[in-house]
Amino acid sequence: MTYYENDGGDRREEVVPDVTLTIQSDDSNGDYVKLRANNNDGSPPGAAAEPSPPTIRAAVWYWVKLVVLFLFLGFLAVVVLVWVGPYFIDKEIIPIINWETETFSTPVLTVLVFTSVAVFPTLLLPSTPSMWVAGMTFGYGFGFLLIISAAAIGVSLPFVIGKLFHHKIEGWLEKYPKKASILRSAGGGSWFHQFRAVAFIRISPFPYLIFNYCAVATNVKYGPYMVGSLVGMVPEIFVAIYT
Length: 243
Prior knowledge:
- This is TVP38/TMEM64 family membrane protein slr0305 isoform B.
- Keywords: Membrane, Transmembrane, Transmembrane helix.
- It comes from Glycine soja.
- The chain crosses the membrane at residues 60-84, 104-125, 137-161.
- Residues 125-242 form the VTT domain.
- The strands form two sheets. This protein has a two-stranded antiparallel ribbon with strand order 1-2. A two-stranded antiparallel ribbon has the order 3-4.
- It folds into two domains: 2-37, no CATH class; 105-242, no CATH class.
- The radius of gyration is 33 Å and the shape is flat.
- 66% of the residues lie in helices and 12% in strands.
- Strand 3 (19-26) and strand 4 (30-37) form a beta hairpin.
- The chain starts with a strand and ends with a helix.
- The chain is mainly alpha-helical.
């Protein structure tokens, strides 16, 4: 549709899209007027625009890169599990464990294992090698009791220390809202809900050393945090002892 407009005495011609005026009747709403712009390309009203070829190519390229990334990560994981991990364990970890068992007496090893399992999580250090020593030296029964009692202290110390830096930890979690949402799920609901959430986080691949400090910022209670942590660590302890 073309219309003319006088602008300071000059006549200006402009072309605007055609507008269709439709008067319809509805029993509930009464009569009403519906305005609809006509499409100049001849396509029916409300027809969805087809994606352009560059958009399709970008989507295909995105999925190709994603598949390649997952394949690379899978190949890297296989290399670590099949070659790097066993080589490192045979050449580094096993000699250290053998040296400890041959050098120290059983009472001294008991103190060392208990102390390492209780203190290492506070220092953000893994305590799995100490669990191996407990399984090799004390067997499954006493080794499990020794580890689980030390683990109770190991998860309690970061919880207490985290209370001193509560505001700083909350500020850190606000910078990573997606990751923090997993942790904050443990702070709501009843006692059983908090216990279950903490146990699931312990079993999941989420780094438990970080969760020990961040748990205090989720407002989870100490009771469900302690019980859920110990229950969630049972599979890891059994795997370490039987290894």
